[in-house]
Design brief:
Layout (H helix, E strand, L loop, with lengths): L2 H25 L1 H11 L10 H4 L1 H22 L6 H13 L6 H17 L8 H6 L4 H9 L5 H30 L6 H19 L16 H22 L3 H9 L9 H4 L2 H22 L5 H13 L6 H17 L7 H9 L4 H7 L1 H21 L7 H23 L3
Helix pairs in contact: 1-2, 1-4, 1-11, 2-4, 4-5, 5-15, 6-8, 6-9, 8-9, 9-10, 10-20, 11-14, 11-15, 12-14, 14-15, 15-17, 16-17, 16-18, 16-19, 17-19, 18-19, 19-20
């Protein structure tokens, strides 16, 4: 194991342990464990804020548990801890605030494992698909607890449904990537949304209720407000210690990259600069939420952790801000509240389109952000909230739309 990779493992372990300790300090051992246990069978479709259902302690234990499982999976499969895997781990932790649990994600990972065996490839070839593919965890929860079945039949249909879903993810992920050509960072979110359309259609045909509802914590909590700023400072200090005097110069080099998939900033620049970048984006996102008076709750913290994760794999301030401006412009243009769940989550997760701004400039980035808000507020209903990465689904559609137009113009110009 390389020295920088060992340092990254220590960082992630410290991060995960700190979240678990924060959870226990918030609600105490018994209440936290009870909350964690309750979340394992709580509805997971968008938007279910786990800090309401399981309390802060139970939710933070769930986040820590999912982060540890993902980290161990990376280690045992002998996959290098770098930009993509850090992005996957932090994204899993983020969505464990609202939708992912150990019980609803394991069947999907197992399905991806079986897909690898089917084509004669090792599991580590598809590890990123397995980790990000847990976006469809709500499907497993729905089949087990909300399908109308009970007992062994419910468990079996949940296991089979999750496994079959995982089996189809690798093939579909490759096809979806070709559509947007790497300009949507949440490619598996796009893939899961596509799969979710079929799953939701089948469930609706079986007369199952797929209406979207919103459970949203609007009660301030010091633990939730301080979590991401604390993580961000940890990442900045850790990264600066790794790069030393070259930190600023390396960060400048990172900012020049477009971010188009696959852009492992840790390989292309340095791990230290990538961690500092993650910390800066985490602080920027937290400051935005604070300035507009938004809630620091499960979904918004999920957005912030995802932004930090992809700061090692495609995002930086220079390619994110045009997307954010476009989303704010659309929010104001259509008379929406900046603090409403849709717009605030669209701004955080909508930075999946950052490579468009990085590759084609500010105006394209702002246009993509504007369009993204319109798409994301409709797309969740299409898959019934089964795809936790709804912004990845909407982002894939938006990126495909813009890339098609740009390529058509370029190919026909001057003819």
């Amino acid at each position: 194991m390389l020295e920088f990779e060992r340092s990254l493992y220590w960082l992630m372990l410290v991060n995960i342990a700190a979240i678990a300790v924060l959870g226990l300090a918030s609600d105490g051992l018994k209440q936290s464990v009870d909350g964690f246990t309750f979340l394992q069978h709580h509805p997971a479709r968008l938007i279910n804020d786990y800090t309401v259902a399981g309390g802060i302690g139970g939710t933070l234990l769930n986040v820590a548990a999912m982060g540890f499982i993902a980290l161990v999976l990376v280690w045992v499969t002998d996959v290098r801890l770098s930009g993509p895997t850090i992005a996957a781990i932090l994204t899993i932790m983020g969505f464990s605030f609202f939708g992912k649990t150990p019980l609803n994600t394991v069947p999907i990972m197992f399905g991806v494992y079986l897909a690898g065996r089917l084509v004669g490839k090792p599991f580590n070839s598809f590890i990123l698909i397995a980790l990000f593919g847990t976006a469809l965890g709500p499907l497993v929860t729905f089949l087990v607890y909300e399908s109308g079945l009970s007992g062994v039949p419910a468990v079996l249909i949940g296991l089979v449904g999750g496994t079959v879903t995982g089996l189809g993810l690798p093939a579909l992920a490759m096809a979806m990537l070709k559509l947007h050509q790497g300009f949507n960072l949440y490619n598996i979110g796009f893939t899961c949304g596509f799969l979710g359309l079929f799953a939701a259609s089948l469930l609706i045909a079986a007369n199952r209720d797929m209406e979207i509802s919103i459970v949203w914590n609007d009660t301030p909590s010091f633990a939730l407000i301080s979590l991401v700023p604390g993580m961000s400072l940890l990442y900045i200090v850790w990264g600066a210690c790794m790069d030393g005097r070259k930190t600023v110069a390396n960060l400048r080099e990172l900012m020049k990259l477009s971010g188009r998939l696959p852009s492992d900033f840790m390989d292309m620049v340095t791990p230290g600069a990538s961690l500092v970048n993650a910390g800066l984006l985490g602080l920027a996102g937290s400051l935005y939420l604070y300035l507009i008076g938004a809630d620091f709750n499960g979904p918004t913290l999920g957005g912030l952790l995802t932004v930090m994760g992809f700061a090692t794999f495609g995002k930086h301030p220079r390619n994110c801000w045009p997307i954010a401006v476009g989303i704010v412009a659309a929010t104001l243009a259509f008379g929406k509240e900046l603090t409403a769940p849709g717009p605030v989550l669209a701004l955080l997760f909508g930075t999946t389109l950052a490579p468009l701004a990085g590759e084609f400039g500010i105006l394209v980035g702002m246009g993509a952000g504007f369009t993204h808000l319109l798409m994301v507020e409709r797309s969740a209903a299409w898959h019934g909230g089964l795809d936790l990465y709804n912004n990845g689904f909407a982002g894939g559609l938006t990126a495909t739309f813009f890339v098609a137009i740009i390529e058509w113009i370029d190919s026909n110009r001057g003819q």
